[in-house]
């Protein structure tokens, strides 16, 4: 009776529909008792597999209704700060031109924070580094490009006068490093272990690009930072890359989405713009002598 009322149809119609569903499935799906109707084991399996399809249909109808009524679709995108600045920003400019009513929110944080928010449904997609395999359950990753970490300093720094710098010299300076536990920090730690210097002791940890930039410009500190975060500064000469090979810190950067549900039309359009933006950026970097690794 409650189901019939919720669906605004008669109880005999509900009973007939359930019987037809059991005939189609070839299994008994419902247990009927004086207390009501409960799902059998087969019914529970069917619900698990049809739930995502029903949600997808609901999302599609909602999107269609929003388009017809002139409502703006809302997208919430997670991005690492360096990826947001270099790839996402130009992609959103083009996306806004083709979807002027769209409302987009951009959230930044560490890769782990963004992946957790994506799994919780808070974000629609994440632009960042590939997460640990154990964190990728229920998610898909599309590789766009690889990006290294660079060691950079302010103009006029003593280390800028040296060629082919011995990494051991970094011990004499404070290092600005990505936060502990981030994929970028793991790559940085592997670099120091590989060159035989051991992990640095004088460290300031941050993923705040504004703070890192300001601190380095006002001190003799050395910043270990993703290329995408400071490529404009390198071209303009406001930061200088040290002559130390950091190619071993390269890591895959791309798009992470949930397997379920199917991305909306708005997300699919934005994904196309992001792919184009990444392709253009990779081509520009490969031709720039200032940012080559």
Annotation keywords:
Arc Repressor Mutant, subunit A, single chain, D-Maltodextrin-Binding Protein, domain 2, 9 helices, 12 strands, alpha/beta, 20% strand, elongated, 3 domains, 5-stranded mixed β-sheet, 293 residues
According to CATH, what is the class of the largest domain? Alpha Beta
Give the low-confidence spans: none
CATH topology of the largest domain: D-Maltodextrin-Binding Protein, domain 2
Radius of gyration: 26 Å
The tally of domains stands at 3
Percentage of residues in strands: 15-25%
Question: Order of strands in the sheet with the most strands?
Answer: 4-3-5-12-6
CATH architecture of the largest domain: 3-Layer(aba) Sandwich
- Major pleated sheet: 5 strands, mixed
Helix content: 40-55%
Span from first to last CA? 69 Å
**What string, H for helix and E for strand, traces the elements in order?**
HHEEHEHEHEEEEHEHEHEEH
